[in-house]
């Protein structure tokens, strides 16, 4: 492997030198373009299919940029299968319907092992086999996404279609091309004239959550589950939006003439060889018993997968047996899906309630007749927001379908209106908070309604639950019930009150003996030792999840320092977005919050990095960690090298070309083409004064900045 990397780097360097010479003739240009495409294609394959990195991001970007520029300057060598062509220039106006080369069949379902056994007997009978004659199977995971078909002509991807009705699908080639685990060119020396591939496009859970969180922030309607999100994304008209969502693809079947492949097992191996990502957990099963073991193993193991699977697919391995069995109207006789117990069930709505959460957001919840779902009894399900309620048209008494979306919180998916009873109860969307009676507000850009009463007990409860949670202050024994008691008895009205609890009063609370009270107070006391990151996260500031809190505490070694940070300086931290930056600034502007910080200090919390203390020289040392800067034009007060050194000192680096990974462009006098390249990619521009201001805000001690104080103002 190392040798490969070395030879690759050697080739890269040669390529770049040749380009620098600027003396390339057409033949050299073409050779360079081909070489760059190959290198980038290999890097993509390694990263997206093999899950390996053979090239540093910055090298990838540099090569990509070179290729892009060469292709722009030499349109005669352009090629729609180049790595630079994954995202279409213009959104599509609509999708055209196209007939599939090979009909996409669906699968018959078995819901238990008896039904699987019955399928096997049917196959044996059809094939004229004795019951003791064994058949070989391939068992695969059934990925819960969206089926597509791909066509490769002479090794090049020419078409991608949705499943549609199986006979005709929609042409979504432009979107398919954005999926990096789908090769644009097959990794075969002699590809067949036409190769048709089927497989499943899906969204991993983390990406599904990220997209929904983004949608929530934008006040848009959420995707109900990863499957809908994958299907919805595939049918996006703008392939730029598709390219921003990390869709993935597992190939599971292929059709081509004269390939000499005799069974499903070898076809999966062949797909891998072609450069496709094949779900790695397929298994060759010599008997149905092995299939059963596979099914049972994955029943519990599937929860550890980063994507959703709703069962297994069992396929008879031999193509000649498959051929003999053929198809019914809808299904192949040689394959069956064995489903895991439903994660969607129906139940009846008893009530609809409105819960105020930690941020004041009011979430409608359905209270339901208890029902078994994915192994647990479920009594409540989220209805997300008011808009979702009206979309569903839900009433009390309705029968609804409830689903565990990616094993997260159950949600109501749809109302079975045909089962609606004659007598139904409607319900009112509340105008006031159900806990504190404060009038609710809805901000114009949000679909959520909020309680904005700072002393609302529901908000206080959410705040305390969060403060006590595992990743925050991890206060063992301080659960929801105790928190309810502490609030209702007026013993606690804020986070800081927890640290002044009176032992006598706590031990006299309902169902709370001396021992429990002692333990609770001890674990509250112990929480004072928690790290600056845990405390910051525990404060529950809007948009500040644990990883964001980590980023902040890595960059700001104390609350004192963080409280003074400007929006711009926060934004220079890679990973801190606009909302998080604004939220931090806003939080510290609220007087109450300042008082809380003082109280926490007095209680004995260390609101700073315990290692570095308040050593100003260490503050924000990593302000520009892993950030890339491009400088264009001449600067007024700093020499280019001085600017470079300053950036380096803070963990960043200055590079020569602009890519989508560039964080900032520092724009001086008479800027060059990098300015417009950056503008196209929406890279943030800073003039020299703004750049120096960021450095000043980070308190870095450097003569260059202090000398330039005047200029900053
Ligand atoms: S084989 C003729 N294999 O399940 C063969 N399908 O419920 C048909 N699916 O439409 C499909 N993982 O979208 C096959 N490993 C797998 C699969 C799989 C997921 C989907 C596929 C199909 C649906 C049927």
Automatic annotation (TrEMBL):
<dbReference type="Pfam" id="PF14520">
    <property type="entry name" value="HHH_5"/>
</dbReference>
<feature type="binding site">
    <location>
        <position position="456"/>
    </location>
    <ligand>
        <name>Zn(2+)</name>
    </ligand>
</feature>
<feature type="binding site">
    <location>
        <position position="315"/>
    </location>
    <ligand>
        <name>NAD(+)</name>
    </ligand>
</feature>
<dbReference type="InterPro" id="IPR003583">
    <property type="entry name" value="Hlx-hairpin-Hlx_DNA-bd_motif"/>
</dbReference>
<protein>
    <recommendedName>
        <fullName>DNA ligase</fullName>
        <ecNumber>6.5.1.2</ecNumber>
    </recommendedName>
</protein>
<dbReference type="Pfam" id="PF12826">
    <property type="entry name" value="HHH_2"/>
</dbReference>
<dbReference type="Pfam" id="PF01653">
    <property type="entry name" value="DNA_ligase_aden"/>
</dbReference>
<keyword id="KW-0862">Zinc</keyword>
<dbReference type="InterPro" id="IPR010994">
    <property type="entry name" value="RuvA_2-like"/>
</dbReference>
<feature type="active site" description="N6-AMP-lysine intermediate">
    <location>
        <position position="142"/>
    </location>
</feature>
<dbReference type="InterPro" id="IPR036420">
    <property type="entry name" value="BRCT_dom_sf"/>
</dbReference>
<keyword id="KW-0520">NAD</keyword>
<dbReference type="InterPro" id="IPR004150">
    <property type="entry name" value="NAD_DNA_ligase_OB"/>
</dbReference>
<feature type="binding site">
    <location>
        <position position="140"/>
    </location>
    <ligand>
        <name>NAD(+)</name>
    </ligand>
</feature>
<keyword id="KW-0235">DNA replication</keyword>
<feature type="binding site">
    <location>
        <position position="339"/>
    </location>
    <ligand>
        <name>NAD(+)</name>
    </ligand>
</feature>
<keyword id="KW-0464">Manganese</keyword>
<dbReference type="InterPro" id="IPR001357">
    <property type="entry name" value="BRCT_dom"/>
</dbReference>
<dbReference type="InterPro" id="IPR013839">
    <property type="entry name" value="DNAligase_adenylation"/>
</dbReference>
<dbReference type="InterPro" id="IPR012340">
    <property type="entry name" value="NA-bd_OB-fold"/>
</dbReference>
<dbReference type="GO" id="GO:0016874">
    <property type="term" value="F:ligase activity"/>
</dbReference>
<feature type="binding site">
    <location>
        <position position="433"/>
    </location>
    <ligand>
        <name>Zn(2+)</name>
    </ligand>
</feature>
<dbReference type="InterPro" id="IPR041663">
    <property type="entry name" value="DisA/LigA_HHH"/>
</dbReference>
<feature type="binding site">
    <location>
        <position position="200"/>
    </location>
    <ligand>
        <name>NAD(+)</name>
    </ligand>
</feature>
<dbReference type="InterPro" id="IPR013840">
    <property type="entry name" value="DNAligase_N"/>
</dbReference>
<comment type="function">
    <text>DNA ligase that catalyzes the formation of phosphodiester linkages between 5'-phosphoryl and 3'-hydroxyl groups in double-stranded DNA using NAD as a coenzyme and as the energy source for the reaction. It is essential for DNA replication and repair of damaged DNA.</text>
</comment>
<feature type="binding site">
    <location>
        <position position="451"/>
    </location>
    <ligand>
        <name>Zn(2+)</name>
    </ligand>
</feature>
<dbReference type="Pfam" id="PF03120">
    <property type="entry name" value="OB_DNA_ligase"/>
</dbReference>
<feature type="domain" description="BRCT">
    <location>
        <begin position="619"/>
        <end position="692"/>
    </location>
</feature>
<feature type="binding site">
    <location>
        <begin position="106"/>
        <end position="107"/>
    </location>
    <ligand>
        <name>NAD(+)</name>
    </ligand>
</feature>
<keyword id="KW-0234">DNA repair</keyword>
<keyword id="KW-0436">Ligase</keyword>
<keyword id="KW-0227">DNA damage</keyword>
<dbReference type="InterPro" id="IPR001679">
    <property type="entry name" value="DNA_ligase"/>
</dbReference>
<keyword id="KW-0460">Magnesium</keyword>
<feature type="binding site">
    <location>
        <position position="163"/>
    </location>
    <ligand>
        <name>NAD(+)</name>
    </ligand>
</feature>
<dbReference type="Pfam" id="PF00533">
    <property type="entry name" value="BRCT"/>
</dbReference>
<dbReference type="InterPro" id="IPR018239">
    <property type="entry name" value="DNA_ligase_AS"/>
</dbReference>
<feature type="binding site">
    <location>
        <position position="436"/>
    </location>
    <ligand>
        <name>Zn(2+)</name>
    </ligand>
</feature>
<keyword id="KW-0479">Metal-binding</keyword>
<feature type="binding site">
    <location>
        <begin position="57"/>
        <end position="61"/>
    </location>
    <ligand>
        <name>NAD(+)</name>
    </ligand>
</feature>
<comment type="similarity">
    <text>Belongs to the NAD-dependent DNA ligase family. LigA subfamily.</text>
</comment>
């Amino acid at each position: 492997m190392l040798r490969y990397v070395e030879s690759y780097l050697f080739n890269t360097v040669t390529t770049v030198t040749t380009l620098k010479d600027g003396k390339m003739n057409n033949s050299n240009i073409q050779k360079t373009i081909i070489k760059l495409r190959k290198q980038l294609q290999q890097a993509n394959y390694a990263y997206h299919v093999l899950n390996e990195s053979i090239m540093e991001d910055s090298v990838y970007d540099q090569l990509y940029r070179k290729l892009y520029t060469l292709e722009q300057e030499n349109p005669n060598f352009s090629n729609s299968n180049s790595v630079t062509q994954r995202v279409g220039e213009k959104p599509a106006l609509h999708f055209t319907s196209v007939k599939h080369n090979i009909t996409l069949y669906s699968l018959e379902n078995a819901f238990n092992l008896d039904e699987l056994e019955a399928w096997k007997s049917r196959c044996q009978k059809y094939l004229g086999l004795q019951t003791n004659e064994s058949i070989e199977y391939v068992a695969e995971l059934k990925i819960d996404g969206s089926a597509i078909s791909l066509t490769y002509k002479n090794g090049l991807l020419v078409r991608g279609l949705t499943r549609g009705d199986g006979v005709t699908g929609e042409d979504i080639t432009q979107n398919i091309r954005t999926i990096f685990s789908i090769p644009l060119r097959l990794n075969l020396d002699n590809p067949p004239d036409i190769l048709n591939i089927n497989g499943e496009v899906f969204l991993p859970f983390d990406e599904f959550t990220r997209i929904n969180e983004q949608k929530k922030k934008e006040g848009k309607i959420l995707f109900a589950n990863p499957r809908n999100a994958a299907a919805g994304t595939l049918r996006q008209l703008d392939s730029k939006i598709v390219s921003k969502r990390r869709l993935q693809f597992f190939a599971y079947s292929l059709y081509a003439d004269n390939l000499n492949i005799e069974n499903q097992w070898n076809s999966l191996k062949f797909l891998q060889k072609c450069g496709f990502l094949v779900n790695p957990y397929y298994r060759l099963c010599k008997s149905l018993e092995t299939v059963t073991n596979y099914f049972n193993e994955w029943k519990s193991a599937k929860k550890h997968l980063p994507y959703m699977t709703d069962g297994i697919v069992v396929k008879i391995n031999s193509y000649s047996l498959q051929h003999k069995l053929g198809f019914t109207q809808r299904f192949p006789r040689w394959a069956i899906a064995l489903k895991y117990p439903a994660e969607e069930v129906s139940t009846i709505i008893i009530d609809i309630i409105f819960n105020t959460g930690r941020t004041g957001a009011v979430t409608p919840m359905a209270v339901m007749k208890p029902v078994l779902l994915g192994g647990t009894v479920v009594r409540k399900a989220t209805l997300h927001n008011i808009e979702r309620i009206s979309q569903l048209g839900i009433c009390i008494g309705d029968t609804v379908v409830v689903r565990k979306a990616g094993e997260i919180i159950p949600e109501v998916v749809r109302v079975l209106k045909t089962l609606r009873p004659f007598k139904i109860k409607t319900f009112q969307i509340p105008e006031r908070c159900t806990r504190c009676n404060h009038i609710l507000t809805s901000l114009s850009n949000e679909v959520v309604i909020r309680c904005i009463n700072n002393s609302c007990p529901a908000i206080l409860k959410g705040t305390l639950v969060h403060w006590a949670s595992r990743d925050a202050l991890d206060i063992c024994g301080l659960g929801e019930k105790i928190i309810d008691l502490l609030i209702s008895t007026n013993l606690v009205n804020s986070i800081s009150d927890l640290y002044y609890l009176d032992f006598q009063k706590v031990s006299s609370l309902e169902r709370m003996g001396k021992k429990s009270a002692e333990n609770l107070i001890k674990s509250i006391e112990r929480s004072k030792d928690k790290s600056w990151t845990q405390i910051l996260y525990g404060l529950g500031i809007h948009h500040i999840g644990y990883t964001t809190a980590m980023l902040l505490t890595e960059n700001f070694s104390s609350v004192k320092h963080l409280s003074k940070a400007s929006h711009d300086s926060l934004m220079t931290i890679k990973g801190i977005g606009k909302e998080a930056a604004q939220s931090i600034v806003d939080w510290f502007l609220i007087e109450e919050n300042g008082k809380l910080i003082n109280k926490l200090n007095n209680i004995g919390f260390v609101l700073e990095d315990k290692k570095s203390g308040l050593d100003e020289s260490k503050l924000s040392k990593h302000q520009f960690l892993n950030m890339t800067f491009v400088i264009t034009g001449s600067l007024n007060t700093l020499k280019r090298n001085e600017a470079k050194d300053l950036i380096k000192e803070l963990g960043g680096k200055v590079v020569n070309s602009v890519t989508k990974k560039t964080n900032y462009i520092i724009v001086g006098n008479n800027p060059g083409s990098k300015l417009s390249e950056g503008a196209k990619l929406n890279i943030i521009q800073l003039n020299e004064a703004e750049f120096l201001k960021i450095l000043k805000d980070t308190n870095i001690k450097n003569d260059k900045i202090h000398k330039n104080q005047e200029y900053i103002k």
